[in-house]
């Protein structure tokens, strides 16, 4: 943890970065297996809440729920590190359902990798307060092969174009392509729900432990087409 304390001195407002940097070491690549943790699901009114990773099983449960509850028009993602090696079909499946039903999306706590992609494809996108002391943060990175980890440029660019289009170009391709500067699979763009001292809500990290987080200009959430939500954690 010594390197964390050393490099956080230059970014005093980012008290949440210490946890993010530790977590990012174990974040799965878009097409790289992540830990098999339990995914919990529940329905509250017109909102479907998914707590945990995005998997083929969670996708099927989501589809069963929207079939049996046609009033669902919101999807909330809670503390998700992304997907497993099935990330491709899982992400496309969620995106297809979001597009078909014009779903609004919400994120609470960590929303990394494929979770961030799914969130950013919502027709309205809102970051909510976390359900614990951790910050609500999105993390985006390039798609990589799960064989040799090479960057899949064509797939990444296709996803970035879709994300930019859904944000009505508020999240520009120039902004999103900062992720290509990453030195490894842990690096990418981080978007925080709340930042103190008037700093940017958007940051880049190379993925190298010796490197610091750096602000990407002075972007607010609204600049990026994302809403700031303050509703309490659903019980």
TrEMBL record:
<protein>
    <recommendedName>
        <fullName>ClpP protease-like protein</fullName>
    </recommendedName>
</protein>
<keyword id="KW-0812">Transmembrane</keyword>
<keyword id="KW-1133">Transmembrane helix</keyword>
<keyword id="KW-0472">Membrane</keyword>
<feature type="transmembrane region" description="Helical">
    <location>
        <begin position="20"/>
        <end position="39"/>
    </location>
</feature>
């Amino acid at each position: 943890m010594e390197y964390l304390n050393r490099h956080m001195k230059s970014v005093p407002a980012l008290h949440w970065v210490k946890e993010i940097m530790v977590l990012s070491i174990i974040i799965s690549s878009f097409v790289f297996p992540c830990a098999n943790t339990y995914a919990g699901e529940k329905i509250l009114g017109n909102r479907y809440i998914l707590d945990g990773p995005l998997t083929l099983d969670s996708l099927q449960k989501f589809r069963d729920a929207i079939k049996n509850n046609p009033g669902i028009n919101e999807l909330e993602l809670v503390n998700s590190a992304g997907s497993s090696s099935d990330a491709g079909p899982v992400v496309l499946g969620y995106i297809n359902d979001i597009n078909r039903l014009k779903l609004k999306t919400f994120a609470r706590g960590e929303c990394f990798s494929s979770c961030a992609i799914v969130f950013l494809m919502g027709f309205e996108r809102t970051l909510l307060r976390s359900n614990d002391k951790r910050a609500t943060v999105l993390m985006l990175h390039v798609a990589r092969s799960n064989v040799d980890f090479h960057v899949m440029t064509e797939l990444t660019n296709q996803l970035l174009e879709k994300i930019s289009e859904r944000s009505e170009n508020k999240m520009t391709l120039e902004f999103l392509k900062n992720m290509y500067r990453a030195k490894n699979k842990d690096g990418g763009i981080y978007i925080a729900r709340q930042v103190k001292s008037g700093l940017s809500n958007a940051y880049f990290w190379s993925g190298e432990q010796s490197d610091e987080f750096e602000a990407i200009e002075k972007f607010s959430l609204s600049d990026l087409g994302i809403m700031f939500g303050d509703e309490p954690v659903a019980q």
